[in-house]
Amino acid sequence: MACSTAHLEVDVPLSEHEQRLLEQIERALVDDDPKFASTVRTGDRRQKARRKVQVGIGLVVVGLAVVLGGAVLPQVLVGVAGFLVAFGGAALVVLNYKNATGAVEAGAAPGPAGRPGPGRGGKGSSKARRQPLKNRLEERFRRRYDQ
Asked: What are the boundaries of the region Disordered (predicted)?
């Protein structure tokens, strides 16, 4: 059996000194080139995801109201349109809920940048869940080739 070492990324918080240095670098960047700094500056992703969740909830409410309107009026197309709006809103909520709350899947190890890894709970080893699909496929091929 071949023994291989997998490259795993671990998030380590910055020390106070490193945080001060990073803030100094950011201020220098803003002072030197404010236009570039504004284009590369990323907002709070969690706040954007929360906003999408709020919009999704609003779409669900509006969609359900339209569905009820379509039921009161004998208009099938209005009801179908309301269902589609509600379904789209629900999809928006489901897709952004994890990012909005910072929730981590049960059994999923944190991946790069604190995001959960690609694994799903219960399948395979925890080591395999932290690796990208390409690495897992390559490792599986190597094991078959070595046998």
From this structure: 105-147
